[in-house]
Amino acid sequence: MSLTSASFNEEEKKAPTLQEILVALSFALDLTEGAVPGHAIRSCLLAVRIALSMGYDHTLISNLFYACLLKDVGCSSNSARMCQIVGGDDRIVKAGAKLADWTRPMRPKLSTLKLLWEEVLPDASPLERSARIVKIAATQHKNNQELIELRCDRGAQIVHKLGLGHEVAVAVRHLDEHWDGGGYPSNLHGEDIPVLSRLMGVAQHLDAFCMSQGPQAAMDTLHGRSGRWFDPELVVAAMALHTTQRLWRQCLPEDPLEEAQAAIRNLHPSKQSLLSELDIDNICEAFADVVDAKSPFTYRHSLGVRDAAIAIGDVLGFDVNRMTMLRRAALLHDVGKLSISNSILDKPGKLTEAEYSQIKTHPSIGASILSRIGAFHEISILTGEHHERLDGTGYPYGLTEQQLSVESRVLAVADIYGALSEERPYREALGVAQIDTIMSRDVPGKVDGLCYEALRVVMANASLPPRYIPQNSRTCNLADFDAVEVFI
Hints:
The protein folds into 2 domains: 18-273, Orthogonal Bundle (Hypothetical protein af1432), CATH 1.10.3210; 277-487, Hypothetical protein af1432 (Orthogonal Bundle). It is 58% helix and 0% strand. It has helices spanning 10-13, 18-32, 39-53, 58-69, 79-86, 90-97, 110-119, 126-138, 140-161, 166-173, 195-213, 215-224, 232-243, 257-265, 277-292, 301-316, 320-332, 342-345, 353-359, 362-370, 377-385, 406-420, 432-440, 449-461, 483-487. The longest helix has 22 residues, at 140-161. The chain starts with 9 loop residues before the first helix and ends with a helix.
Protein backbone atom coordinates (compact mmCIF):
# COMPACT_ATOMS: atom_id res chain seq x y z
CA MET A 1 0.00 0.00 0.00
CA SER A 2 2.96 2.34 -0.01
CA LEU A 3 4.18 4.69 -2.73
CA THR A 4 7.52 6.17 -3.58
CA SER A 5 8.09 9.87 -4.10
CA ALA A 6 7.21 11.10 -7.60
CA SER A 7 5.96 7.66 -8.68
CA PHE A 8 3.54 8.94 -11.33
CA ASN A 9 2.92 6.70 -14.34
CA GLU A 10 1.49 7.93 -17.62
CA GLU A 11 -2.08 6.79 -16.91
CA GLU A 12 -2.12 8.55 -13.55
CA LYS A 13 -0.84 11.78 -15.10
CA LYS A 14 -3.99 12.04 -17.24
CA ALA A 15 -6.44 14.59 -15.95
CA PRO A 16 -9.73 13.01 -14.87
CA THR A 17 -13.08 14.06 -16.29
CA LEU A 18 -15.75 15.74 -14.19
CA GLN A 19 -17.99 12.73 -14.77
CA GLU A 20 -15.32 10.31 -13.52
CA ILE A 21 -14.72 12.26 -10.30
CA LEU A 22 -18.41 12.81 -9.51
CA VAL A 23 -19.32 9.17 -10.14
CA ALA A 24 -16.56 8.06 -7.76
CA LEU A 25 -17.33 10.62 -5.07
CA SER A 26 -21.05 9.83 -5.25
CA PHE A 27 -20.14 6.64 -3.37
CA ALA A 28 -19.03 8.84 -0.48
CA LEU A 29 -22.43 10.54 -0.48
CA ASP A 30 -24.13 7.14 -0.40
CA LEU A 31 -22.23 6.40 2.82
CA THR A 32 -23.59 9.46 4.59
CA GLU A 33 -27.18 8.50 3.80
CA GLY A 34 -26.72 4.87 4.81
CA ALA A 35 -27.69 3.90 1.26
CA VAL A 36 -26.76 0.72 -0.57
CA PRO A 37 -23.49 1.51 -2.42
CA GLY A 38 -24.18 2.79 -5.91
CA HIS A 39 -27.47 4.48 -4.94
CA ALA A 40 -26.61 7.75 -6.70
CA ILE A 41 -25.53 6.14 -9.97
CA ARG A 42 -28.51 3.79 -10.07
CA SER A 43 -30.82 6.74 -9.36
CA CYS A 44 -29.12 8.57 -12.22
CA LEU A 45 -29.70 5.68 -14.61
CA LEU A 46 -33.37 5.42 -13.61
CA ALA A 47 -34.01 9.17 -13.83
CA VAL A 48 -32.35 9.53 -17.23
CA ARG A 49 -34.28 6.56 -18.64
CA ILE A 50 -37.58 8.09 -17.52
CA ALA A 51 -36.57 11.51 -18.90
CA LEU A 52 -35.55 10.05 -22.26
CA SER A 53 -38.82 8.14 -22.55
CA MET A 54 -40.65 11.45 -22.14
CA GLY A 55 -38.62 13.15 -24.86
CA TYR A 56 -36.78 15.72 -22.75
CA ASP A 57 -33.99 17.58 -24.53
CA HIS A 58 -30.22 17.25 -24.41
CA THR A 59 -29.69 20.16 -22.01
CA LEU A 60 -32.15 18.84 -19.44
CA ILE A 61 -30.65 15.34 -19.62
CA SER A 62 -27.16 16.76 -19.07
CA ASN A 63 -28.31 18.77 -16.04
CA LEU A 64 -30.20 15.74 -14.73
CA PHE A 65 -27.04 13.63 -14.93
CA TYR A 66 -25.08 15.99 -12.67
CA ALA A 67 -28.00 16.70 -10.35
CA CYS A 68 -28.54 12.99 -9.69
CA LEU A 69 -24.91 12.35 -8.86
CA LEU A 70 -24.89 15.35 -6.49
CA LYS A 71 -28.41 15.13 -5.09
CA ASP A 72 -27.08 14.15 -1.65
CA VAL A 73 -24.07 16.47 -1.60
CA GLY A 74 -25.57 18.49 1.28
CA CYS A 75 -26.48 15.40 3.29
CA SER A 76 -23.61 15.59 5.79
CA SER A 77 -24.70 19.03 7.01
CA ASN A 78 -27.68 17.64 8.95
CA SER A 79 -26.05 14.46 10.30
CA ALA A 80 -25.16 15.93 13.67
CA ARG A 81 -28.66 17.38 14.10
CA MET A 82 -30.29 14.08 13.10
CA CYS A 83 -28.14 12.27 15.66
CA GLN A 84 -29.12 14.82 18.28
CA ILE A 85 -32.84 14.37 17.56
CA VAL A 86 -32.89 10.55 17.59
CA GLY A 87 -30.03 9.90 20.01
CA GLY A 88 -28.81 7.05 17.81
CA ASP A 89 -27.19 6.20 14.48
CA ASP A 90 -28.02 8.98 12.02
CA ARG A 91 -27.12 6.87 8.99
CA ILE A 92 -29.51 4.03 9.84
CA VAL A 93 -32.35 6.45 10.59
CA LYS A 94 -31.75 8.34 7.33
CA ALA A 95 -31.86 5.11 5.34
CA GLY A 96 -35.02 4.01 7.11
CA ALA A 97 -36.69 7.37 6.56
CA LYS A 98 -36.48 6.84 2.79
CA LEU A 99 -38.80 3.85 3.17
CA ALA A 100 -41.31 5.52 5.49
CA ASP A 101 -44.24 7.77 4.62
CA TRP A 102 -43.25 10.53 7.02
CA THR A 103 -46.12 12.73 5.79
CA ARG A 104 -48.47 10.49 7.80
CA PRO A 105 -46.92 10.37 11.27
CA MET A 106 -50.12 9.14 12.89
CA ARG A 107 -50.26 6.12 10.55
CA PRO A 108 -46.78 4.60 10.88
CA LYS A 109 -45.95 1.17 9.52
CA LEU A 110 -44.74 -1.56 11.86
CA SER A 111 -41.30 -1.43 10.19
CA THR A 112 -41.03 2.28 10.99
CA LEU A 113 -41.94 1.74 14.64
CA LYS A 114 -39.43 -1.10 14.85
CA LEU A 115 -36.69 1.11 13.39
CA LEU A 116 -37.44 3.90 15.85
CA TRP A 117 -37.51 1.53 18.81
CA GLU A 118 -34.14 0.07 17.85
CA GLU A 119 -32.35 3.31 16.96
CA VAL A 120 -33.81 6.03 19.18
CA LEU A 121 -31.75 6.30 22.40
CA PRO A 122 -30.60 2.65 22.07
CA ASP A 123 -28.88 2.63 25.49
CA ALA A 124 -31.74 4.29 27.39
CA SER A 125 -34.57 2.74 29.37
CA PRO A 126 -37.84 1.76 27.64
CA LEU A 127 -39.60 4.71 29.29
CA GLU A 128 -36.98 7.20 28.03
CA ARG A 129 -37.10 5.72 24.55
CA SER A 130 -40.89 5.87 24.45
CA ALA A 131 -40.87 9.49 25.55
CA ARG A 132 -38.34 10.44 22.88
CA ILE A 133 -40.32 8.67 20.14
CA VAL A 134 -43.48 10.53 21.18
CA LYS A 135 -41.55 13.80 21.09
CA ILE A 136 -40.17 13.01 17.62
CA ALA A 137 -43.70 12.32 16.34
CA ALA A 138 -45.03 15.53 17.87
CA THR A 139 -42.26 17.68 16.36
CA GLN A 140 -41.92 15.84 13.06
CA HIS A 141 -42.94 18.71 10.79
CA LYS A 142 -40.57 21.13 12.51
CA ASN A 143 -37.73 18.59 12.44
CA ASN A 144 -38.31 17.73 8.78
CA GLN A 145 -38.30 21.39 7.82
CA GLU A 146 -35.05 22.00 9.69
CA LEU A 147 -33.21 18.88 8.52
CA ILE A 148 -34.22 19.10 4.88
CA GLU A 149 -33.58 22.83 4.70
CA LEU A 150 -30.07 22.33 6.12
CA ARG A 151 -29.35 19.60 3.61
CA CYS A 152 -30.89 21.23 0.55
CA ASP A 153 -29.49 24.71 1.10
CA ARG A 154 -26.01 23.35 1.66
CA GLY A 155 -26.29 21.06 -1.36
CA ALA A 156 -27.28 23.96 -3.61
CA GLN A 157 -24.34 26.02 -2.32
CA ILE A 158 -21.87 23.25 -3.13
CA VAL A 159 -23.32 22.77 -6.62
CA HIS A 160 -22.88 26.51 -7.22
CA LYS A 161 -19.28 26.24 -5.95
CA LEU A 162 -18.63 23.48 -8.48
CA GLY A 163 -19.89 25.74 -11.28
CA LEU A 164 -22.57 23.36 -12.51
CA GLY A 165 -25.18 26.04 -13.08
CA HIS A 166 -28.35 27.44 -11.60
CA GLU A 167 -30.68 24.69 -12.86
CA VAL A 168 -28.67 21.91 -11.20
CA ALA A 169 -28.39 23.85 -7.93
CA VAL A 170 -32.13 24.58 -7.84
CA ALA A 171 -32.91 20.94 -8.61
CA VAL A 172 -30.81 19.76 -5.68
CA ARG A 173 -32.41 22.31 -3.36
CA HIS A 174 -35.95 21.12 -4.16
CA LEU A 175 -35.27 17.38 -4.22
CA ASP A 176 -37.68 16.68 -1.34
CA GLU A 177 -40.68 18.69 -2.57
CA HIS A 178 -43.92 16.73 -3.09
CA TRP A 179 -46.47 17.04 -5.88
CA ASP A 180 -49.27 17.87 -3.42
CA GLY A 181 -47.26 20.65 -1.73
CA GLY A 182 -46.51 18.62 1.39
CA GLY A 183 -42.74 18.40 0.87
CA TYR A 184 -39.79 20.56 1.88
CA PRO A 185 -38.09 23.01 2.05
CA SER A 186 -40.52 25.36 0.25
CA ASN A 187 -43.83 23.41 0.03
CA LEU A 188 -43.84 23.79 -3.74
CA HIS A 189 -46.83 22.29 -5.53
CA GLY A 190 -47.22 20.47 -8.85
CA GLU A 191 -45.42 21.97 -11.80
CA ASP A 192 -43.90 24.66 -9.59
CA ILE A 193 -41.44 21.95 -8.57
CA PRO A 194 -38.49 21.87 -11.01
CA VAL A 195 -38.83 18.95 -13.38
CA LEU A 196 -35.30 17.81 -12.50
CA SER A 197 -36.31 17.57 -8.83
CA ARG A 198 -39.45 15.64 -9.76
CA LEU A 199 -37.44 13.17 -11.82
CA MET A 200 -34.86 12.69 -9.07
CA GLY A 201 -37.56 12.22 -6.44
CA VAL A 202 -39.07 9.36 -8.41
CA ALA A 203 -35.70 7.80 -9.18
CA GLN A 204 -34.30 7.85 -5.64
CA HIS A 205 -37.58 6.37 -4.35
CA LEU A 206 -37.38 3.55 -6.89
CA ASP A 207 -33.81 2.65 -6.00
CA ALA A 208 -34.30 2.79 -2.23
CA PHE A 209 -37.35 0.50 -2.35
CA CYS A 210 -35.90 -1.81 -5.00
CA MET A 211 -32.71 -2.39 -2.98
CA SER A 212 -34.74 -3.04 0.18
CA GLN A 213 -37.90 -4.78 -1.00
CA GLY A 214 -37.50 -5.54 -4.71
CA PRO A 215 -38.67 -3.84 -7.93
CA GLN A 216 -42.36 -4.74 -7.65
CA ALA A 217 -42.61 -3.20 -4.17
CA ALA A 218 -40.88 -0.10 -5.54
CA MET A 219 -43.44 0.19 -8.35
CA ASP A 220 -46.42 -0.51 -6.05
CA THR A 221 -45.35 2.19 -3.60
CA LEU A 222 -44.61 4.62 -6.44
CA HIS A 223 -48.13 4.07 -7.80
CA GLY A 224 -49.60 4.50 -4.33
CA ARG A 225 -47.92 7.89 -3.89
CA SER A 226 -48.72 9.15 -7.39
CA GLY A 227 -50.37 12.55 -7.24
CA ARG A 228 -49.37 12.94 -3.62
CA TRP A 229 -45.58 12.65 -3.57
CA PHE A 230 -44.88 12.24 -7.27
CA ASP A 231 -45.79 13.78 -10.62
CA PRO A 232 -48.45 11.42 -12.09
CA GLU A 233 -47.02 11.75 -15.62
CA LEU A 234 -43.58 10.61 -14.41
CA VAL A 235 -45.17 7.69 -12.58
CA VAL A 236 -46.97 6.62 -15.78
CA ALA A 237 -43.67 6.83 -17.71
CA ALA A 238 -41.86 4.76 -15.08
CA MET A 239 -44.66 2.17 -15.08
CA ALA A 240 -44.45 1.87 -18.88
CA LEU A 241 -40.70 1.30 -18.73
CA HIS A 242 -41.19 -1.28 -15.98
CA THR A 243 -43.84 -3.12 -18.01
CA THR A 244 -41.58 -3.29 -21.08
CA GLN A 245 -38.58 -4.33 -18.93
CA ARG A 246 -36.54 -1.27 -19.88
CA LEU A 247 -36.41 0.43 -16.48
CA TRP A 248 -34.30 -1.80 -14.25
CA ARG A 249 -31.33 -2.82 -16.41
CA GLN A 250 -28.16 -2.77 -14.23
CA CYS A 251 -30.28 -1.51 -11.29
CA LEU A 252 -31.56 -4.66 -9.59
CA PRO A 253 -30.16 -5.90 -6.25
CA GLU A 254 -28.58 -8.91 -7.93
CA ASP A 255 -26.90 -6.89 -10.68
CA PRO A 256 -23.13 -6.41 -10.25
CA LEU A 257 -22.29 -2.84 -9.30
CA GLU A 258 -19.70 -2.77 -12.07
CA GLU A 259 -22.51 -2.97 -14.63
CA ALA A 260 -24.14 0.18 -13.29
CA GLN A 261 -20.77 1.95 -13.29
CA ALA A 262 -20.15 0.93 -16.90
CA ALA A 263 -23.63 2.11 -17.92
CA ILE A 264 -23.20 5.47 -16.19
CA ARG A 265 -19.88 6.10 -17.94
CA ASN A 266 -21.66 5.91 -21.30
CA LEU A 267 -24.72 7.84 -20.22
CA HIS A 268 -23.74 11.49 -20.34
CA PRO A 269 -24.83 12.91 -23.70
CA SER A 270 -22.02 15.43 -24.13
CA LYS A 271 -18.31 14.98 -24.64
CA GLN A 272 -16.46 14.25 -21.42
CA SER A 273 -13.86 16.99 -21.27
CA LEU A 274 -10.75 16.86 -19.12
CA LEU A 275 -10.61 19.10 -16.07
CA SER A 276 -8.08 21.83 -15.44
CA GLU A 277 -5.85 21.70 -12.36
CA LEU A 278 -7.92 24.46 -10.76
CA ASP A 279 -11.15 22.59 -11.47
CA ILE A 280 -9.80 19.48 -9.75
CA ASP A 281 -8.70 21.51 -6.73
CA ASN A 282 -12.15 23.13 -6.49
CA ILE A 283 -13.84 19.72 -6.51
CA CYS A 284 -11.47 18.40 -3.83
CA GLU A 285 -12.14 21.47 -1.69
CA ALA A 286 -15.91 21.15 -2.15
CA PHE A 287 -15.88 17.55 -0.99
CA ALA A 288 -13.59 18.48 1.89
CA ASP A 289 -16.41 20.81 2.95
CA VAL A 290 -18.86 17.89 2.71
CA VAL A 291 -16.66 15.78 4.99
CA ASP A 292 -16.03 18.54 7.52
CA ALA A 293 -19.74 19.44 7.70
CA LYS A 294 -20.57 16.04 9.16
CA SER A 295 -19.51 17.07 12.67
CA PRO A 296 -19.34 20.51 14.31
CA PHE A 297 -16.01 19.43 15.78
CA THR A 298 -14.38 18.95 12.37
CA TYR A 299 -15.43 22.26 10.85
CA ARG A 300 -12.63 23.20 8.41
CA HIS A 301 -10.47 20.28 9.64
CA SER A 302 -9.59 19.15 6.11
CA LEU A 303 -8.61 22.68 5.08
CA GLY A 304 -6.45 22.94 8.18
CA VAL A 305 -4.72 19.64 7.41
CA ARG A 306 -4.17 20.86 3.85
CA ASP A 307 -2.55 24.09 5.08
CA ALA A 308 -0.32 22.21 7.53
CA ALA A 309 0.66 19.57 4.98
CA ILE A 310 1.65 22.02 2.23
CA ALA A 311 3.54 24.16 4.75
CA ILE A 312 5.53 21.08 5.85
CA GLY A 313 6.05 20.04 2.22
CA ASP A 314 7.35 23.50 1.42
CA VAL A 315 9.94 23.29 4.24
CA LEU A 316 10.98 19.85 2.95
CA GLY A 317 11.34 21.17 -0.62
CA PHE A 318 8.67 19.12 -2.36
CA ASP A 319 8.33 19.77 -6.09
CA VAL A 320 5.12 20.92 -7.78
CA ASN A 321 3.79 17.44 -8.56
CA ARG A 322 4.34 16.17 -5.04
CA MET A 323 2.76 19.28 -3.53
CA THR A 324 -0.29 18.92 -5.77
CA MET A 325 -0.75 15.28 -4.77
CA LEU A 326 -0.25 16.12 -1.08
CA ARG A 327 -2.66 19.05 -1.19
CA ARG A 328 -5.47 16.98 -2.71
CA ALA A 329 -4.83 14.01 -0.43
CA ALA A 330 -5.03 16.32 2.59
CA LEU A 331 -8.36 17.72 1.43
CA LEU A 332 -9.85 14.26 0.88
CA HIS A 333 -8.06 12.25 3.58
CA ASP A 334 -11.14 11.85 5.79
CA VAL A 335 -13.72 11.13 3.08
CA GLY A 336 -14.21 7.67 4.61
CA LYS A 337 -15.53 9.29 7.80
CA LEU A 338 -18.81 9.85 5.99
CA SER A 339 -19.43 6.16 6.76
CA ILE A 340 -19.21 6.70 10.55
CA SER A 341 -22.25 7.60 12.64
CA ASN A 342 -22.23 10.92 14.44
CA SER A 343 -23.11 9.01 17.59
CA ILE A 344 -19.47 7.92 17.45
CA LEU A 345 -17.84 10.99 15.90
CA ASP A 346 -19.46 13.38 18.39
CA LYS A 347 -19.36 11.12 21.45
CA PRO A 348 -18.20 13.14 24.47
CA GLY A 349 -16.73 10.16 26.32
CA LYS A 350 -14.20 7.46 25.56
CA LEU A 351 -15.03 5.17 22.65
CA THR A 352 -15.82 1.52 23.23
CA GLU A 353 -13.69 -1.09 21.50
CA ALA A 354 -16.47 -1.69 18.96
CA GLU A 355 -16.78 2.03 18.24
CA TYR A 356 -13.04 2.43 17.82
CA SER A 357 -13.05 -0.53 15.44
CA GLN A 358 -15.53 1.37 13.27
CA ILE A 359 -13.34 4.49 13.37
CA LYS A 360 -10.39 2.43 12.16
CA THR A 361 -12.20 1.52 8.94
CA HIS A 362 -12.43 5.07 7.60
CA PRO A 363 -8.97 5.32 5.94
CA SER A 364 -9.46 2.16 3.88
CA ILE A 365 -13.03 3.14 2.94
CA GLY A 366 -11.78 6.52 1.75
CA ALA A 367 -8.95 4.88 -0.20
CA SER A 368 -11.43 2.54 -1.89
CA ILE A 369 -13.61 5.45 -3.01
CA LEU A 370 -10.72 7.51 -4.39
CA SER A 371 -9.15 4.50 -6.14
CA ARG A 372 -12.10 4.63 -8.56
CA ILE A 373 -10.46 7.73 -10.09
CA GLY A 374 -7.45 6.68 -12.20
CA ALA A 375 -5.55 9.93 -11.72
CA PHE A 376 -6.05 9.70 -7.93
CA HIS A 377 -4.08 6.47 -7.43
CA GLU A 378 -1.41 8.03 -5.21
CA ILE A 379 -3.98 10.18 -3.45
CA SER A 380 -5.98 7.06 -2.57
CA ILE A 381 -2.85 5.47 -1.09
CA LEU A 382 -2.07 8.50 1.05
CA THR A 383 -5.70 8.59 2.21
CA GLY A 384 -5.48 4.97 3.29
CA GLU A 385 -2.23 5.56 5.20
CA HIS A 386 -2.84 8.78 7.12
CA HIS A 387 -3.31 6.93 10.43
CA GLU A 388 -0.35 4.59 10.01
CA ARG A 389 2.64 4.88 12.40
CA LEU A 390 6.31 4.11 11.84
CA ASP A 391 6.37 1.30 14.43
CA GLY A 392 3.39 -0.54 12.90
CA THR A 393 0.90 0.44 15.62
CA GLY A 394 -1.28 2.55 13.32
CA TYR A 395 -4.32 1.54 11.33
CA PRO A 396 -5.85 0.16 9.18
CA TYR A 397 -2.97 -1.83 7.68
CA GLY A 398 -0.33 -1.81 10.44
CA LEU A 399 2.38 -0.60 8.03
CA THR A 400 5.89 0.13 9.26
CA GLU A 401 8.54 2.77 8.51
CA GLN A 402 9.93 0.99 5.44
CA GLN A 403 6.47 0.86 3.87
CA LEU A 404 5.49 4.50 4.34
CA SER A 405 6.42 7.23 1.87
CA VAL A 406 7.54 10.69 2.88
CA GLU A 407 4.19 12.03 1.69
CA SER A 408 2.30 9.60 3.95
CA ARG A 409 4.43 10.69 6.89
CA VAL A 410 3.79 14.37 6.18
CA LEU A 411 0.05 13.79 5.97
CA ALA A 412 0.09 11.86 9.26
CA VAL A 413 1.91 14.71 11.03
CA ALA A 414 -0.43 17.31 9.55
CA ASP A 415 -3.49 15.30 10.57
CA ILE A 416 -2.30 14.87 14.17
CA TYR A 417 -1.51 18.57 14.38
CA GLY A 418 -4.92 19.45 12.98
CA ALA A 419 -6.73 17.15 15.43
CA LEU A 420 -4.87 18.50 18.46
CA SER A 421 -5.31 22.15 17.51
CA GLU A 422 -9.09 21.79 17.17
CA GLU A 423 -11.80 21.39 19.78
CA ARG A 424 -13.17 17.89 20.20
CA PRO A 425 -16.29 16.67 22.06
CA TYR A 426 -14.07 15.28 24.83
CA ARG A 427 -11.57 18.19 25.21
CA GLU A 428 -10.66 21.78 24.43
CA ALA A 429 -8.38 22.75 21.55
CA LEU A 430 -4.72 22.67 22.53
CA GLY A 431 -2.04 25.33 22.18
CA VAL A 432 1.30 25.05 20.41
CA ALA A 433 3.26 24.18 23.55
CA GLN A 434 0.85 21.42 24.48
CA ILE A 435 0.84 20.03 20.94
CA ASP A 436 4.64 19.95 20.98
CA THR A 437 4.66 18.10 24.31
CA ILE A 438 2.23 15.46 23.05
CA MET A 439 3.66 14.92 19.57
CA SER A 440 7.30 14.91 20.63
CA ARG A 441 6.61 11.82 22.74
CA ASP A 442 6.07 9.83 19.57
CA VAL A 443 9.13 11.10 17.67
CA PRO A 444 10.81 9.14 16.15
CA GLY A 445 9.09 5.91 17.22
CA LYS A 446 5.67 6.53 15.72
CA VAL A 447 5.98 9.90 13.97
CA ASP A 448 8.66 10.85 11.45
CA GLY A 449 11.21 13.16 13.06
CA LEU A 450 12.12 15.07 9.89
CA CYS A 451 8.47 15.83 9.12
CA TYR A 452 7.82 16.89 12.69
CA GLU A 453 10.84 19.20 12.74
CA ALA A 454 9.45 20.78 9.58
CA LEU A 455 6.14 21.33 11.39
CA ARG A 456 8.03 22.94 14.26
CA VAL A 457 9.65 25.34 11.80
CA VAL A 458 6.22 26.19 10.44
CA MET A 459 4.75 26.79 13.89
CA ALA A 460 7.74 28.85 15.02
CA ASN A 461 7.53 31.06 11.93
CA ALA A 462 3.73 31.29 12.10
CA SER A 463 3.65 30.39 8.41
CA LEU A 464 0.25 28.74 8.75
CA PRO A 465 -2.84 30.94 8.48
CA PRO A 466 -3.68 32.43 11.91
CA ARG A 467 -6.74 30.15 12.24
CA TYR A 468 -4.40 27.15 12.44
CA ILE A 469 -1.78 28.51 14.84
CA PRO A 470 -3.50 27.69 18.14
CA GLN A 471 -3.17 29.62 21.37
CA ASN A 472 -2.65 27.85 24.67
CA SER A 473 -5.88 26.33 25.95
CA ARG A 474 -7.14 27.19 29.39
CA THR A 475 -6.63 23.90 31.21
CA CYS A 476 -5.65 20.48 29.97
CA ASN A 477 -4.10 17.41 31.58
CA LEU A 478 -1.71 16.06 28.95
CA ALA A 479 -1.48 12.71 30.70
CA ASP A 480 -5.12 12.09 29.81
CA PHE A 481 -4.46 11.85 26.07
CA ASP A 482 -4.30 8.34 24.63
CA ALA A 483 -4.06 7.26 21.01
CA VAL A 484 -7.80 7.30 20.45
CA GLU A 485 -8.31 10.83 21.72
CA VAL A 486 -5.31 12.31 19.95
CA PHE A 487 -5.58 10.80 16.52
CA ILE A 488 -9.30 10.66 15.66
